[in-house]
Write a structure and sequence with these properties.
By secondary structure, the chain is an alpha+beta fold. The chain has a single domain, classed as Double Stranded RNA Binding Domain (2-Layer Sandwich), CATH 3.30.160.100. The chain has two helices and four strands. The protein has a four-stranded mixed beta sheet with strand order 1-2-3-4, covered by helices on one side. Helix 1 packs parallel to helix 2. The longest helix has 29 residues.
């Protein structure tokens, strides 16, 4: 799995990076059983003059049931970087769960072909 954490408008923060990696553990466990390619990119943007910070999660996965890759993007804005990072990662996780459930539901709805003689 390719994982990348980018800091914009601020210096590299080891504590924040550790917190983001801890929050990504649930998402990574979910993606362990999925085939490659899969990538996660986290962009942390800190506004220089006021407390209007932004965290964006870009997730590219290829699930077993899907014939093609699926992209999930989520972003949150706010004051505390830890809080909005947690919210953005949880949002991406829930979008991924909803997408997987949609694939399972679609598979169940499709009738199986039976040979007619």
């Amino acid at each position: 799995m390719n994982k990348k954490i980018v800091f914009r408008g601020m210096d590299h923060d080891v504590v924040l990076e550790g917190y983001i990696n801890d929050q990504l553990a649930k998402l990574e466990r979910f993606l362990e059983k999925q085939p490659d390619p899969k990538s996660i990119e986290i962009v942390v943007e800190k506004h220089p003059s006021h407390a209007h910070n932004k965290v964006t999660v870009n997730l590219m996965v290829h699930l077993h049931e899907a014939a093609q890759s699926h992209r999930i993007n989520s972003h949150k804005e706010g004051i505390d970087l830890n809080t909005i990072a947690d919210e953005a990662i949880n949002c991406a996780y829930h979008e991924l769960l909803n997408y997987k459930q949609k694939l399972v539901d679609d598979r169940r709805k499709t009738p199986k072909h039976q040979d007619v003689e």
